[in-house]
Specification:
The protein is of the alpha/beta class. The protein contains 14 helices and twelve strands. The chain has two domains: 175 residues, Leucine Dehydrogenase, chain A, domain 1 (Rossmann fold); 150 residues, Rossmann fold (3-Layer(aba) Sandwich). The protein starts with a helix and ends with a helix.
Length: 409
């Protein structure tokens, strides 16, 4: 995974450097765009249920704060490495700028397999991690959120620990993605998937195309992939393939998502129609491909076999730089992760605003605000696509970089 993390960091930095240079920015500005402002790396000890003590490695990378407080999730994964966390923090800076949010980019991670921990051990790891970064975060400094293998329950433990460390200080907006009773926002669970579908619908409208009957293959059937599939189906798309980490399913007539979800819950994996692999799914003859799981899955090994005309990057960094260059020249439209999956951080921003104001909106109000913000983000980027005749991904990065640079002092 270390090599994967390095590749992801190289891709993120490479995209920014290439875009910034094409914009004529000086090398000193380029350096500020790629180098993190702060990088916290640490180890912390946790008591296990059997009485033994175990040391875990953790990171919080604070990439850029020109536009506002650092913002980004915390992931718990056995393959987490510093390079991956730095790459994700870098992309968060661009993503927040693209989405028009008053945030910079940050990311956190712990090298741990949460599936091997009991609930009490997971709680101790969560509290141990937040204890290390507590001096460096705050609602106007750095606002963490859930990411891979973290959830509202973990955010609740972290918030409680943060408040204990700060002697009971009530700061509900120091973390987002919290349970509703602790100041979480309605609509947050579906937000990333919903934002992706809103963006795709807005793009098709720009292209004067209808969603009705367009075929979709989605790699990843977790929270993001499931809600993307569900909401896309409601908009008339035909989801013909889905997959999780263990297996995949293909049905050219369309997949019944509720049945697929039921079998996943019962059997621990997707079982429906024709069984396919994750690799097979990426190469299917569909209109739209949605990588919603892992990074670097579209790469030099399979890029010539990708048949979809539109790729919606719902995962972070699912396309390597080499593969992107090839697909862009081929005419494939890549809706970049910094735009496509910004629905999650946008509703995190809305949660932050609600917490600071002490006033919470209905789910309908949250979804309406999300739709307005995602459509505006695409509008701003699309203008650049039309005027400069450049690919969507390049236009998105130029837009994000312009906004960050304008705020640098």
């Amino acid at each position: 995974m270390e090599n994967q993390g390095k590749k992801m960091l190289e891709s993120a930095r490479g995209l920014i450097i290439k875009t910034a240079k094409s914009m004529g920015l000086p090398s000193s500005t380029v350096d500020r765009l790629v180098e993190p402002e702060m990088a916290h790396e640490f180890a912390f000890e946790v008591r296990m249920d059997n009485g033994d003590k175990k040391v875990f490695k953790g990171w919080r990378i604070q990439h850029n704060s020109a536009l506002g407080p650092y913002k980004g999730g915390i992931r718990f994964h056995h393959d987490t490495v510093r390079e991956e966390v730095q790459a994700l923090a870098t992309l968060m800076s661009i993503k927040c700028a693209v989405a028009g949010l008053p945030y910079g980019g940050g990311k956190g991670g712990v090298k741990v397999d949460p599936k091997k921990l009991s609930k009490t051990e997971l709680e101790r790891v969560s509290r141990g991690f937040i204890g290390k970064i507590a001096p460096y975060i705050g609602e106007n400094i750095d606002v963490p959120a859930p990411d891979v293998n973290t959830n509202p329950t973990i955010m609740a433990w972290m918030l409680d620990e943060y408040q204990k460390i700060n002697k009971g200080q009530k700061s509900p907006s120091v973390l987002t993605g919290k349970p509703i009773p602790l100041g979480g926002s309605l609509g947050r669970t579906e937000a990333t998937g919903r934002g992706g579908v809103i963006t795709l619908m807005a793009l098709l409208k720009k292209m004067k195309k209808s969603s009705k009957g367009m075929t979709v293959a989605i790699q990843g059937f977790g929270n993001v992939g499931y809600y993307f599939a569900k909401l896309a189906s409601e908009e008339g798309f035909k989801v013909v393939a889905i997959s999780d980490s263990k297996s995949g399913a293909y049905d050219k007539t369309g997949i019944n998502l509720e049945k697929a979800l039921k079998t996943k819950k019962e059997k621990g994996t997707v079982v429906y129609g024709k069984a396919i692999t994750n690799s097979d799914l990426l190469e299917l003859p569909v209109d739209i491909l949605v990588p919603a799981a892992l990074e670097n899955v579209i790469n030099s090994q399979n890029m010539t076999k990708i048949k979809a005309k539109i790729i919606v990057e719902m995962a972070n960094g699912p396309t390597t730089e080499e593969a992107y260059e090839y697909l862009a020249k081929k005419g494939t439209i890549v809706v970049p992760d910094v735009l496509a999956n910004a629905g999650g951080v946008t509703v995190s921003y809305l949660e932050w605003v609600q917490g600071k104001a002490g006033y919470w909106w209905s789910e309908k109000e949250v979804n309406e605000k999300l739709k307005i913000m995602m459509e505006k983000a695409l509008d701003d980027i699309w203008k650049k696509v039309i005027i400069k005749k450049i690919p969507l991904k390049q236009a998105a990065f130029e837009t994000g970089i312009e906004r960050i640079v304008a705020a640098l002092v």
